[in-house]
């Protein structure tokens, strides 16, 4: 069984927002990856950007830059 670890998740209103965040983060070497939204939560597009809990401070720029695209912010064991 895969061990779950605490992760900070950003969910999005649409897929284009999720893809834009992925591109933005990769260009700036901001940690994280796109994953399907966990069952425990619901989101419009079904994708979320996930980072380890201890790396969540790296997302301040992302949250400011994409405030209109982000549907929710979560801390879950994924």
From TrEMBL:
<protein>
    <recommendedName>
        <fullName>Putative Se/S carrier protein-like domain-containing protein</fullName>
    </recommendedName>
</protein>
<feature type="domain" description="Putative Se/S carrier protein-like">
    <location>
        <begin position="7"/>
        <end position="65"/>
    </location>
</feature>
<dbReference type="Pfam" id="PF11823">
    <property type="entry name" value="Se_S_carrier"/>
</dbReference>
<dbReference type="InterPro" id="IPR021778">
    <property type="entry name" value="Se/S_carrier-like"/>
</dbReference>
């Amino acid at each position: 069984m895969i061990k779950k670890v605490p992760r900070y998740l950003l969910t999005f209103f649409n897929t284009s927002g999720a893809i834009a965040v992925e591109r933005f983060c990769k260009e700036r070497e901001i940690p994280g990856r796109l994953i399907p939204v966990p069952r425990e939560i619901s989101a419009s597009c079904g994708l979320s950007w996930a980072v380890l809990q201890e790396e969540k401070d790296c997302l301040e720029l992302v949250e400011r830059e994409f405030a209109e695209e982000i549907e929710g912010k979560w801390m879950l064991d994924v």
